[in-house]
Design a protein that fits this description.
463 residues, Fumarase C, Chain B, domain 1, Ribonucleotide Reductase Protein R1, domain 1, two-stranded parallel ribbon, 5% strand, binds arginine
Length: 463
C-alpha cells in the first residue's frame, strides 16, 4: 500500500479507504473554498509583513491562491476524497502550482484556526444577505398593508372570532417580527466577526505573527482574546441557527395563516397560478404548496440548532473533530432560510389576492363587536364586569333567536339597559369597532397609519 502524503512521516500506511471517506469533509466544506483562499491570502500577507517569509514568497503564494480561485470558478478545481478537506485540497494544489514555496503557507497556522476563520467569513457574508432578504420581505408586507388599512379581517384568539382588525395591522405584525429578526442578525454578526486566525492549533504560535494585521485585512472587528476559546468557539453559529430558527417560526406562522386563508372555509385569499400547484388526480384543486413547504422546512432548521448544541455540550477544550459536524447544519440552515424568505416574498408580491368582499362579509356576520357593547356601557359608567355579563346574556338570546347584535331594535337594547341610545348602532359597526381601538399599537386606523410611516422609515434607512 502506498502511503498517503497528507500526514507526517510518523505514518507508515495509508488510511483504510472506508475510513478515509468517513473522515473526509471535502464533499461539503468545498462550500468554504472562496473564504479559505481569502483567509490564506491574508495569512500569507501577514507572514511577509512580519518577515516570517519574504515579500517575493508571499507574492508567489498569493498568485497561486488566486489561480486556484480562477480554476474553481471555471469548474476546473474538483478535489476528491483523497484531499480530506478543503484546506488540504488548496494546499496540495498550491504546491503543484508554485512548487516548494507553497509548503510555507501553513507556517504559524493550524487547520483549527483556519477553519474557524473560514466559517466566520462565510457566515458574516450570509448574514448580510439574509438581512437584505428580510428587508425585501418586509417591503412586500408593507406594500399590502398600505393597500389595506381600511380592509377589515376577523381577528382571532384561540382561533375563535375575537375582534375585527385592519388587515394592514395583521400584516404589520409580521413586519415587526421580521424587524426583530433583522436586529437579531445584526447582533449575531457582531459575535461572528471576530478573528481566530493566529490562535494556532490551540496555544498560539512561536512565530512573531501579527494577528491584528490579518484580522484587519479580513475585515474582522476584534480578535479572540484566548487561543483555546478562539479555535473551539461555535457560539456564534449556535446563535445564528437560533436566529434562523426564529425567522422560520415567523415564516411558518404566516404560512399557516395563508394556508387557512386559502381554504374554502375561510376564502380570505385566492392563490394566483404563478404560485399555486394542482393535484394529479383532483382537477378542481389549487394547492398552497409554497407555504406548506415553508412550514415543513422549518423543522430542519430547528434540527440543525439542536444538533449543534448537542455537538458542543460535551466537548473538552480545545478543537475536537466533532466540530467538523458544524458545517452541514450551518450550510443547510443558511440555504433553507434564504430559499424560504425568497419564496414567501414572491408569494406576497405576486401570489395572493385578498378577497375584500368576502372579508367585509366575514366581519359583519359575527359577534366580534360584543366587547364594544360592553365598552359602550362602561363608558356610560356601568362597571365593566357588569356590562360584560349583560352582553353575554344578549349574545346568548340573540344566538337563540338567530339574530346578530345589529338586528336588535332600540327598544330591545333599552330593555337590556337604559343607558343604550341610538348611537349604539354606530358604535358596533365593524369599521367603527376597528377605528376606535386607537390606543398605541392598536388596530385603529390612525394607529395603523402611524405604524406604516414608521415602517417606511425603517426600510428607507435600512435599520
Ligand atoms: N475538516 C476539519 C473541520 O472541519 C478541519 C480542521 C481539522 N483539524 C484537525 N485538527 N483535524 O473541522
Amino acid at each position: 500500500m502506498t502511503k498517503q502524503q497528507t500526514w507526517s512521516d510518523r505514518f507508515e500506511s495509508a488510511l483504510n479507504p472506508a475510513i478515509a471517506i468517513f473522515n473526509a469533509s471535502i464533499s461539503f466544506d468545498i462550500e468554504l473554498i472562496e473564504y479559505d483562499l481569502t483567509g490564506s491570502i491574508a495569512h500569507a500577507q501577514m507572514l511577509a509583513k512580519t518577515k516570517i517569509i519574504s515579500e517575493v514568497e508571499a507574492q508567489q503564494l498569493v498568485s497561486g491562491l488566486e489561480q486556484i480561485r480562477q480554476e474553481y470558478r471555471q469548474g476546473n478545481f474538483n478535489p476528491g476524497v483523497e484531499a480530506e478537506d478543503v484546506h488540504f485540497a488548496v494546499e496540495k494544489r498550491l504546491i503543484e502550482i508554485v512548487g516548494d514555496v507553497g509548503k510555507k503557507l501553513h507556517t504559524a497556522r493550524s487547520r483549527n484556526d483556519q477553519v474557524g476563520t473560514d466559517i466566520r467569513l462565510y457566515l458574516r457574508a450570509e448574514i448580510r444577505q439574509i438581512q437584505g432578504q428580510l428587508k425585501q420581505f418586509q417591503a412586500a408586507l408593507l406594500n399590502h398593508s398600505k393597500n389595506h388599512v381600511e380592509t377589515l379581517i376577523p381577528g382571532y384568539t384561540h382561533l375563535q372570532r375575537a375582534q375585527p382588525l385592519s388587515l394592514a395591522h395583521h400584516l404589520l405584525a409580521y413586519f415587526q417580527m421580521a424587524q426583530r429578526d433583522w436586529e437579531r442578525l445584526n447582533d449575531v454578526y457582531k459575535r461572528t466577526n471576530i478573528s481566530p486566525l493566529g490562535c494556532g492549533a490551540l496555544a498560539g504560535t512561536t512565530f512573531p505573527i501579527d494577528r491584528e494585521y490579518s484580522a484587519e485585512l479580513l475585515g474582522f472587528d476584534h480578535l479572540y482574546e484566548n487561543s483555546l476559546d478562539g479555535v473551539s468557539d461555535r457560539d456564534f453559529a449556535i446563535e445564528f441557527l437560533c436566529a434562523a430558527s426564529l425567522i422560520m417560526v415567523h415564516l411558518s406562522r404566516l404560512s399557516e395563516e395563508m394556508i387557512l386563508w386559502a381554504s374554502q372555509e375561510f376564502s380570505f385569499i385566492t392563490l394566483k397560478d404563478t404560485c399555486a400547484t394542482g393535484s394529479s388526480i383532483m382537477p378542481q384543486k389549487k394547492n398552497p404548496d409554497i407555504p406548506e413547504l415553508v412550514r415543513g422546512k422549518t423543522g430542519r432548521v430547528f434540527g440543525h440548532l439542536q444538533a449543534l448544541l448537542v455537538v458542543m455540550k460535551g466537548l473538552p477544550l480545545a478543537y475536537n473533530k466533532d466540530l467538523q459536524e458544524d458545517k452541514e447544519g450551518i450550510f443547510d440552515g443558511v440555504k433553507t432560510v434564504k430559499a424560504c424568505l425568497e419564496a414567501m416574498t414572491i408569494l406576497l408580491q405576486e401570489g395572493i389576492e385578498f378577497q375584500t368582499a368576502r372579508l367585509a362579509d366575514a366581519v359583519a356576520e359575527d359577534f366580534s363587536n360584543a366587547t364594544d357593547v360592553a365598552d359602550y356601557l362602561a363608558s356610560k359608567d356601568v362597571p365593566f364586569r357588569e356590562a360584560y355579563n349583560l352582553v353575554g346574556k344578549v349574545v346568548k338570546t340573540s344566538l337563540a333567536a338567530g339574530k346578530l347584535l345589529r338586528d336588535l331594535t332600540l327598544e330591545e337594547w333599552q330593555q337590556l339597559h337604559p343607558a343604550f341610545e341610538a348611537d349604539i348602532y354606530e358604535a358596533i359597526a365593524p369599521k367603527q369597532v376597528v377605528s376606535a381601538r386607537n390606543s398605541y399599537g392598536g388596530t385603529g386606523f390612525a394607529q395603523v397609519q402611524q405604524a406604516i410611516s414608521k415602517a417606511e422609515s425603517l426600510l428607507e434607512t435600512n435599520t
